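Backbone shapes recur. Consider a single case.
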Amino acid sequence: MLDTNNLKENMIVRDLIERLNAYTANLTETEKKVVFMRNGLYGKKYTLREASEELKTSHQTIANIEEKALEKMEDVANKLTHI
């Protein structure tokens, strides 16, 4: 018997992964890493301090990288909603 709940969950997960890939496709590896770290996509939500220690840079640099990355992602979101 087909488990429709698992099927729906798999479809939702695939859709989320596709969307995440679309939103992050134009980010640098560092930008992507910062966004993932700060938003818990590696399983833990990093603080500015933790992210700066992990990437061996200043809090301000992490904040600047995150801001630039989120602006890029917002641009992609705006383009996708106008298609």
